[in-house]
Predict the 3D structure of the following.
Amino acid sequence: MGSYIVRRLGGAIVVLIGIAVITFLLSYALPSDPARMILGMRASQAEVNQLRIQMGLNLPLYEQFWRYFINLLHGNLGQSYQLDMPVTELIEQRLGLTAQLALAAWLFELIIGIPAGIIMALKDRGFLDHTLNVITLIGVSLAPFFLGLELLYWVAFKANLFPAGGSGGIMYVILPGLTYGITGAAYYARLLKTSMLDVLNSDYIRTARSKGAGMWRVVFGHALRNAMLPVMTYGATDIAALFGGIVVIEDVFGYAGVGSLAVNAISQTDVPVIMGTVIFAAVFVVLFNVVVDLLYGLVDPRISY
Amino acid sequence: MMAKKQMRLVGVVASVALLSTALAGCSTQPTATAPVNHTVAQQGAQPTYGGTLTMDLSSPFPHLDPALAYDTTSYEAVTQMYDQLLTYKGTSNTIIPDLASRWSISKNGKVYSFWMKNAKFWNGDPVTADSFITEFQRVLSFSASGGQGFIAPLIVGSEAFEKGQAKTISGMKSLDGGKELQITLTQPSPTFQYVLAMPFFSAVDPKYIAAHPDTAKNDYMAQHPMGTGAFELSSVNPGQQWVFTKNPHYFKKGLPYLSKLVFNLDSSPESVLLHFEQGQTQFIGYNQAGNGIPGPDYLPIMSSKWKSDTYTTTQVSTNYIGLNSSVAPTNNLLVRKAMEYAVNKEELLRIVNGRGVIANQPIPISMPSGYQTHLPASATYNYNPTMAKKLLKEAGYHGQAVTIYSDNSNPTDALTAQALQGMFKQVGISAKVKLTSWNVFLANNETGKQGVFTLAWLEDFPDPSDFLNTLLNSNQRPVNNSSMFNDKAVDKLLNKAQTMPNGPARNAIYKQVESLVMEQAPWIPYVYPTFTAVFQPNVHGYYLNPNLVDPFQAMWISK
Amino acid sequence: MSQMMTTPGGLEQTLAYPPKKQSSKFVRVLKAYPLVFIGGIMVLFLVIMAVFAYKIMPYNPNYQFPNGLAMNGAPLAPDKQFIMGTDELGRDVFSRVLAGAQISLEVGVFASIISLFIGTTLGIISGYFGKWVDTIIMRITDIMLAFPFVLFVVALVSVLGQSVSNVFIALGVLGWAVTARVVRGQVLAVREFEYVQAAKALGAPNWRILFKIILPNIAGPVIVLTTLAIGNNMLAESTLSYLGIGVAPPQASWGNMLAEGQQVFQYAPWMLYYPGLALTLSVLGFNLLGDGLRELFNPRRVR
């Protein structure tokens, strides 16, 4: 167990360094000059050159990377060109809202995906199975911003059930959460169906059935609990990605999370913010997965190291 | 006044560039139309106090510091928080005192004296002559300001201060214990009074600034403004929301009516429309980067019940296509002329839903002077594809690719660029469209290497020099003069007009310049745009001065 | 665990089983799973439309009809001349939807081929050679999977510049990680087969084992993944267009048509709904087909 933890953490550190290298190279290769973007169009070339020196942009590549890396270790993701604030602060301020939406989005995936998965397993290859399969696949096939706009228009505006975008409170997370839920539920449904069928075909369930246990009791009493393990494993990594910001959907709903921060940064070519949100999401995913893996090791004795 | 040869080639006006102020025009008839119950003209109704005006903002405010603000989005916020010595009356180009109680100009036109009103900053500090001297110094010492060109070297001692050779600007004096401000110019200027109405030259609190020293790079004032204005910045959620609350001690008694202004960042036109339709926002106007109702939202609003709640006025602005004379193939005059003939301006106007008037020269029709009613034939281009093809042949054009650069944040610009590409193709010019974000677009344009680009210019003040000298004088290359126009005769005329007194002689020079410029075809001016704002039926008191922004202090919401 | 992040539900699980001969079960699968037909027909229809787009379309998709706009500049609703209406520049939406089919499919297919190539190669190397090679490749895969895909692609397109080929290159180069994971798992399973062990023991060269045994055995899952990836990449292209960095105008892609239609959908809904419908149905086609093929290649599911 101890050596597993060391290996797992070691691997994670390698991955984190890799993330740093890639984001650095991407920022480095971007055609825009950071010094010019910070000082604005009206600054003189001399000043831009001076700032370039100050920022170390004239240093050899490896030295620039080293600076960049040290900054990352200190949680310094640079300064937004557009908002003139540290990127870390900008992300921090939006974390709360993003977390709320991530949770809502995840719940909607489960609310749609789990019942669908159960029914699809029970009615395997029946009409309901095919119907639900098609419905959930339509969800995956929709462009999220397209679906988001439709919900915004018909549900929020025409039916006047929700505010037409904005953030701050439960009324604001339902529609964007639902949008994400619809586009993501199919994965859960499919996963649960598969694992549910495996469980339903296992000996102990057959035994239970043969002893006359009712279908619903079997499903909810035994099968579902066991079948949920792979679903929750997927769910854990899924929610980690959600916390990185639901990029496009946040923007459609004008939701002030990390995702819309990223979209605004893209429209302004605010490179430090774009890269900052990329790194933030990536690091979050890695760390979250490490924690989940280690927790699994603690709670599930079947996993051996 | 704005540009002398010595002037640094800073991008003086570039970032305001797009879309800014509108001018209801003096010489030409103001075209403002608005339902009676919304305008100030309505005297019957008694304004009510209180209420919150919520709006969408198309991009974050780039600057909240008056010394750095030089774009239509920043102006919207800065002018609520800060006041200037002079301002414009109503929707006219008439200058009236603002923070000055009265003012006078010496006989030789060089010495300006201003007496201060009894006004206070939000923190209770009084406005004095030093409030302005400090701000003029800040503008000169912040290289990124963009405002230097308006006062240096015009004000005596400004250059010495800018270069760090003097600790103060010798031409600016605080007299009578700060109650009087005296400004001495090196020569008379026909436009200095307009300059003093620009947000650059607002009153700032010297004591506050001394307590929180700032530089252009680390700007305390940008995060924590301190002004005299009707609205005070009360909270910011960076990149998302800006809230301004009423200044209860505003020096204009009885104003403002509204308690609160709320700006929410929302860049997509479809959301801007939905928010308004749902009543989440009360208003769409200058807050949309100075453009009024965003392009895609215009037709839906004009065909809705809100049509009667709109306000329309002609902007003193020119939308143009820049043809860069320093890169191939637009360095060939014949190719540029062919492009002029290839453009169907009526079609371009129709694409923007007829929101404007067809343009044929840099100066907008609503500018009080300088507009040339009858351009000579040599400077006139009517849509004529056959002529375009003929000129291309003459020029020896063999299908070199042209790139049309445009800003992707403005849906109408992106459409115009595509339409233009189609028109070029019709006459045999192969063009591709390159859309980038506004920042990147400007940064590239500033280098003077973009061959063909779509851009617009909005007046800083009602004087033709603001268009012709700023954008076409060769000493403004490449930042403002990004079409790289370079003509000795034009330069000579422009430089001469800079110091001439206002009047027919100066006006005649600008008209002459217009003909000379259009003969060289550095621009395809295509539309003088109109501005349309829309508000909920309970919002009152709206008007738009061509040189200013939304008049929030005069607006009120009925219960 | 994290490997499943972007895998459509349970894919790896079902793929992890060693495939057997399935020809005899083929018909039974199709009977049991009719949706694969529907998906296949939808994809076939899309491909035909895309390939013959320029033969089918009534007009040049980039031509701006002078009579394609109302006097006030409003796009025209569908009528006899323009059966799907016109857009804000007076261009024929139907012709553009067809031209867009070509571009969108091109992006989807080429991006997927690139990912397929990179992912399969790395997956095979990783699974077959194992040891430190495996560790390195799997770490790189972890890195790729940690990034938020859309933003990652945005960053790369910003570096490469905006064009059709750069869009599919970026999608392809960044989207191979799942394929690599799945292929590696498959190779690991196949490697343990007795006949592979036997072939190795008999001294068969690596390339022979790779091409004769391993490749045919991983083909099924890889086809499934690629089918699904085409749909996903078509969606990703639309997202890039929404963010303003997709296929550059005036070239029509469903993505940028959707992005334009989005802005005006209240008064020109045809500009949003026709490309939206085309995109959704096409992606659905690939998803149904991929989903069906997965069942097809998974013998355990057919009883």
Observations:
- Residues 38 and 81 of chain A are 5 Å apart (CA to CA).
- Chain A has a mean pLDDT of 86.
- Chain A touches chain C through 66 residues (CB under 8 Å).
- DSSP finds 13 helices and no strands in chain A.
